[in-house]
Prior knowledge:
This protein is mainly α and 140 residues long. The chain contains seven helices and no strands.
Amino acid sequence: MTGLTHMAGGALAGAAMSGDYRIAVAALAALMPDWFQVNVPGGSSLTRGVFGHRGISHWLITAIGVAALVAIVSPGLSVYVLAGWVSHIVLDVLSNGAPALWPLPRITLARIKSGSFLDAIVGSALLSLFFAILLVRLLR
């Protein structure tokens, strides 16, 4: 899935729990699994070399660990970090799979190609649900 689709999924996860600035935390956290692998100095070569693409940063145990670390600094935001990170993993399970339940085998529910028309449809659907949730909250 593209970064935009991941951000839409994270925003939806955040909106499902809150209607305030914490939505942005979930949306940004949804980018973290790929950011960790690609942008941390040595992270890409280390994680790909040891764990392959969609490695350690795509484990649910890693998402829980990061959320626990965030809870030390900001307990109220940790659940949004977890929601965004998990939304990323779920979307990658739909996009050629991810080792979400490591050490169990990689889970693949679909093979949606990143950047494809279907990826755009999924991203659009996630954004539509996000805006629907915000609209419902606004009209209450």
